[in-house]
Amino acid sequence: MKPGKRPSRLLAEFFLAFLFLSVLLNCNYPARHYFSWHLFRPSVDVWLLLSLLAMAAYMGRRPLMWTCLPVWAFFLILRVFRIGDTAVPMFLNRPFNLYIDSGYLFGLYDLLKTTARRGSFLLLSAKTVVVTLGIIISSWYAWRVAALGLTHKKFRLTFLTVSAVIFSVVLIHGRPSIKSPVMARFGREIFSIRDQLRAQQAFFVRLKKTAREREAFPASLKALQGADVLLFIVESYGRIVFSHPKYRQVIKTTMDNLTRVLDRHGFQAVSSYLVSPTYGGSSWLAHSSLEFGLRAGNDLEDTALLRSSLPPLASYFAKSGYRTISVMPGTRFAYPEGTAFGYDRYYYARDFNYRGQSFGWAPMPDQFVLDWVRHHEFVKRSQPLFVHYVLISSHAAFSRQPQFLVDWESIGDGRIYKDIEPVTYPIYWPNLQNAGEAYLRSLDYDFTVLGDYFARYVSADTLIIIMGDHQPNVQLTGEGQPWSVPVHIISRNPRLLEPFSRRGYTPGLIPSQPLPHAGMETFLQSFLEDFR
Predict the structure, then answer these.
(1) Does 41 have pLDDT greater than 90?
(2) pLDDT of the residue at 52
(3) At 198, phi and psi to the nearest 5?
(4) Average pLDDT, the chain
(5) Domains of the chain
(6) Residue 307: count of CB within 10 angstroms of its CB
(7) Strands 506-507 and 323-328, bridge-based pairing
(8) SS3 readout for 233-266
(9) How deeply is 136 buried, as exposed, middle or buried, from its count of CB atoms within 10 A (0-12, 13-18, 19+)?
């Protein structure tokens, strides 16, 4: 760093670098509008880091250069942190958790890859690489320019004096209008890790206590009298479809159509709401909470559940003479932890030998999945079945959806889907604000499939449970919505519906229970008590 420039030029370049770095850190991503005059507001974080460089400059040029490197690296960390701190509340309706959410990077990559338009993922990746390299290189150059300006003794002294005065006034008198620095939020996240580890230990204690209490509970499900039980988890099916005027009329039409099918074939239904432990994503938390009967509010608690001795839902069916089956067509990677759910048979994406096209994140249509499982498990069986389906055709971003096939016998290995044009919508990450129509259509598809399947293939004594896993993306629901999801109980046998009616489930497919609602984790205990 050779201070060979005139002081006036050093001063001008310093302020330009300061402005550029402030704009870079102030920029919100993702956001509806990227340009705002707030971008040009001086960044407190950049000012503090420049103050650090100014103090390092008093020690000489070499210490200044070596200080510039970690300052630049920390600036990039803050920039990435801001992206997470913006995106997580936007999509998952909760604050960003550095300790937990940093593990979602591969999942985010996979989601973008599978839901992007054909041929656009490479372009998106190329743009990301170019922008990232541009930020890295330009920010490094800006920090070097700023550091060079601070080598001028008089300017450095003036900058530190003015900074000390401004920050002293702020500390003494307070200025609520000044935006809290990103590094303060980052620091709180770092220090919260210890609290999260303590919370995890408390969860372990609660887990062991629940396991001891569960040991004394009867394992038999005699009251089912051998009736098949089909549990359908519908992706992104949340309370918002019934509570939001924009969605209610559309979903009412869907439910009216399903009701007519059920009535024609002798089914009855009751419905309610349960509170999911997650919102907009992280579906596995809902699955674990439901199947273990203990709320998994984050990945740490979910891991603890999967490694615990707490008996899962399937184990009670197995002890009652059922063959238990887990159907998870959206699981495309190795999932050894899944054995903790205690099923006799697991079907993941690779097991279906599907030969058709994929539909965004969903590697195959839900109608194909139901038909495949019917042929492989229901046609020839020697014991009652408990089947847990995770339906995925309603997964965000809802941009590519399958057509409903009236002729189930034509489905076969799925090759037919190569010849059928999918239903498409111009919706792409990160903006899902206009995805309402596509979202509702995806639910209509699933309920059309389910209704036709029940009418054709479900026997008289079957107990059917349909449940959402979480509310859809916040951009579809708006902020401040409860985390509730609908649950429907359907059967031709009124006796199987009575326990749910006693617990406040109301007739029909449109729940009407006021807030607050019970947690999804309460379903297991209630089910065991009602059918023992």
Answers:
(1) no
(2) 86
(3) -65, -40
(4) 88
(5) 7-191 (no CATH), 217-530 (3.40.720.10)
(6) 12
(7) unpaired
(8) EECCCCCHHHHCHHHHHHHHHHHHHHHHHHHHCC
(9) middle
Which DSSP string corresponds to 56-117?
HHTT-HHHHHHHHHHHHHHHHHHHHHHHHHHHHHHHHSS---HHHHGGGHHHHHHHHHHHSP
Instruction: Read off the pLDDT of residues 494-524 as tens digits, 9 standing for 90 and up.
Output: 999 999 999 999 999 999 999 999 999 999 9
Note the Cα 236 to chain centre separation in Å.
Answer: 9
pLDDT reading at 419 higher than 70: yes
Comparing CA positions, the residue from 84, 481, 513, 524 lying closest to residue 296 is 524
Cα angle value 379/385/386 (rounded, 5°) = 135
490 strand-pairing partners: 269, 464
Which pTM value belongs to this model? 0.86
Over residues 135-148, the mean pLDDT reads 90
Q: Which residues are within 8 A (CB) of 325 and not within 5 positions of it... i.e. 6 or more apart? A: 343, 344, 345, 346, 347, 373, 377, 385, 386, 387, 388
pLDDT at residue number 174: 61
